[in-house]
Crp/Fnr family transcriptional regulator (Mycolicibacterium canariasense), 238 residues
Amino acid sequence: MRSWLFDGQDTMMATHLDDICGTAFHLADFPSGHRLFGQGEPGDRVYVIISGLVKMSCTVAHGNEVVRDIRGPGDVVGELSMFDPGPRSETATCQTLVRTGWLTSASLRRLADRYPDLAQRWLQALARQLQNREAEMAGVVAADVATRVARQIVSLADRFGQDGQDARGTVHVYHSLTRHEFAQLAGARREAVSQALAKFVERGWLVTTPGGFDVFDLDSLRHRARGAFPDVRRRYPA
């Protein structure tokens, strides 16, 4: 498992693992549908995802739930509670069987006091998340729906894609979301997202699967995610 908590050589893991596992780190498995924490609850735990997928969502006007992100292996959930134990801003729900390592926010703060590099890495990760959120908000305003959909598919493929090990270079992407939830992630209406996906399927770039995609032409999707319109290349599976 790779995580932004550890650098390229995992030196932080090697340096701090005994302290974390010996005093504060707990392994736990949670079934699909289990809620790790809810919006508005106290931020008293931090989770590192070892395997599985976790949906991050929030409740907006009229009680509607909006999907904000999907977290997977190596990602940290509840990261703000290291600095702010106040009410959670999001709900974290297991989309699959999830294995995590968790520790209390108080234990994490004590570790940060002992190891300043941990706190620095945490702040850097939070800064990147803020930058990504700002970029996403700008994209929702400026980009057309097909561009937003392509960006989400590329992001999911880069984070969770599995090599299909075939001559076509298929990338299997499982995100666990319904079509409605994926549309929320893309910041568009379900009907508009379905239309964009249908065009991608027609061009041979991907096919939809239950809770995911089989991607055949990731390069074209990357171009489309940048707002470009690549030449149509039909690459349907044989």
Observations:
- The mean pLDDT is 83.
- The helical segments are 11-23, 105-114, 116-142, 145-160, 179-186, 190-202, 218-225.
- The radius of gyration is 19 Å.
- The first strand starts at residue 26 and ends at 30.
